[in-house]
Amino acid sequence: MIPITSFGGRAVAVFGLGGSGLVTAEALAAGGAKPIVWDDGEAGRKAAADKGLDVRDLNEIDWSDVAALVLSPGVPLTHPKPHWSVKLASAHGVEVIGDIELFVRERRLRAPGSPFIAITGTNGKSTTTALIAHLFAAAGRDVQLGGNIGTAILSLDPPSPDRVHVVECSSYQIDLAPSIDPSVAILLNVTEDHLDRHGTLEHYAAVKARLVEGADTPVVGVDDAWCAAIADAIEAKGGRPVRISVESQLSEGVYAVGDRLFSAEAGRAVEVASLAGIGSLRGAHNAQNACAALAAARAGGLTLYQIQAGMRSFPGLAHRMEQVGRLGPVLFVNDSKATNADAAAKALSSFPTLYWIAGGKPKTGGIESLAEYFPKIRKAYLIGEASEEFAATLEGRVPYVRAETIEKAVPLAAADAAASGLEEAVVLLSPACASFDQFRNFEERGKAFSRAVLALPGIGKA
């Protein structure tokens, strides 16, 4: 845990008592602050009371004594309207911040300038975060991995000059961290997302931009117009952004051509790494992630040899292009995290020939946008509520069977792929749907796929 000493002796209101909220309150208490905590749900309040925390309705406290409101990132700050706790804090002139901001302030007190790598983007941030942490860990560095990737940042070990904090940041978390100042910050991409919480795409992009604007080394993907403009704006203010691309060969920055990564300076490019044969980093989207990780790792002092070795040993993330097993020439890939068509497109583009398991709780737009990948699909195995709708889209274009469940789809796809005679056939779960018709979440869906694959006779390691 990181005791938060910057509010020592002062009252701090904490709203939102999920996992990170409870850790935040405990970290404040450990640093000498007096947290007053509340949650709209009884379960959260009980969990806090069981830990001996001061649980009080924030509507009934004396706000004149409160130094800050620490808000859970899942609670609306501005859109569609500020949460009632935010309105209370604002009415009393109390700043509203999040746990990332608490970390940032504690880092400045304990170990200013210590390695702090922060990652954001609409897509790819979890894989990039995990890859960067893996590169440093494989090189023997003390690495702390947390943030939006699933581990509360204040549950990590405290900042120190020889400890690298690698932190995934959502737009919600950045919005609550006004003084964030990483040593390296990465902005991968900006596409339309979370407008219910940010109002407009312009505001969403501006929030994302704050992360790289405050960094010593800003790393910015420039394959979308929003991020390209952000990189230009940083440069116009005297900054030196490291641009990354998988669509253009840059004169300055890091870019990918297929599975080869290049570093360019003053118009001269040198190949510095290769993704060839690294299944966990297959596809153009992972090439972008790898470019960003390479730029961050070099800024953090790793050698090219250490970076290449680390990439080759990267296992990938569960449920994100995860190679589950192999049955002769058939590779089984779990991409359960692909909960919409845009996400599924990245997986479909990564393999030449596919036996595709798709479906679940459908989202607006269906899979018509994936038509360019239909010629690669030998057969589709449709599951869940979307099976009828997806069947109508595929009719006459892709052979399909309505398997309805993963347990039925996997052996059907395995048999067809094995009989294809291909040197490598891929059975891919990339549902292009939410999971809530048959599963609690995409993780449970991915686990069901893995169980079905590992139950196949003769299955081996990928």
Automatic annotation (TrEMBL):
Start and end residues of each Mur ligase C-terminal domain: 319-433
GO annotation, biological process: cell division; cell wall organization; peptidoglycan biosynthetic process; regulation of cell shape
GO annotations of cellular component type: cytoplasm
Pathway assignment: Cell wall biogenesis; peptidoglycan biosynthesis
SUPFAM superfamilies (UniProt xref): MurCD N-terminal domain, MurD-like peptide ligases, catalytic domain, MurD-like peptide ligases, peptide-binding domain
EC primary class: ligase
Protein family membership: Belongs to the MurCDEF family.
This protein's name: UDP-N-acetylmuramoylalanine--D-glutamate ligase
Biological source species: Labrys okinawensis
Lineage of the species this protein comes from: Bacteria, Pseudomonadati, Pseudomonadota, Alphaproteobacteria, Hyphomicrobiales
Gene name for this UniProt entry: murD
